[in-house]
Design a protein that fits this description.
The chain is mainly beta. The chain has one domain: Sandwich (Immunoglobulin-like), CATH 2.60.40. It is built from 1 helix and 9 strands.
Length: 134
Amino acid sequence: MLAALLAAVAITPVYAQRAPSPKDAAVYIIWPYDGAVINGGFWLRMGLRNMGVVPKGGQFPHAGHHHVLIDTELPPLDQQIPSDRNHLHFGAGETEARIELPPGKHTLQLLLGDHNHVPHDPPIYSNKITVTVR
């Protein structure tokens, strides 16, 4: 009986508790604006209100770091944010970044992640914007 209990505990996934966020917190894209037409690469400027920006691993109350979602939907908000060409992590605490996208229409959205790259509770994400790259 003890062996069965230990086996069940060993295979039960353990989820980290999500970091809390203030209800009035907001993340937003400062630049580019929705509908912008951009020639080539651009500097994405990211804003955050009523929370702090810290590098990954920095475990501080009401703080996190930016993730930029490009041409994709929000990931599951109770799991670690993926890291790929559509989910860019700015774990050094950056608030601006040079973005290079191929010509065409693209969507951009910010999602704040905690020290483990997991969205806060409640999650802090921006409106999605559309830009056109020439």
